[in-house]
Design brief:
83 residues
Amino acid sequence: MMSATSTLALTHFVTLADSFDKDKVTPGVLGFIVFAVIGGAVWLLMKSMNKHMKKVDFEEQPKGGEAAGTASAAAQAPEPKTG
């Protein structure tokens, strides 16, 4: 059985729902705040990523002397013993 308080609250919500125009729904201030926070977070992440990417130093193709040195070192490595 429903109490008088819950019945009263339910009737107020029903009248608010009836007067609410479903064709003119807007996100409002809360939607803008959430969107602005997400946009700010993405901006900060991009800024951090750019800073970290500037620190990365690599060669796309190794120099000729280094490539030959690693290949000869791999050929000279002893093979594992199997028992």
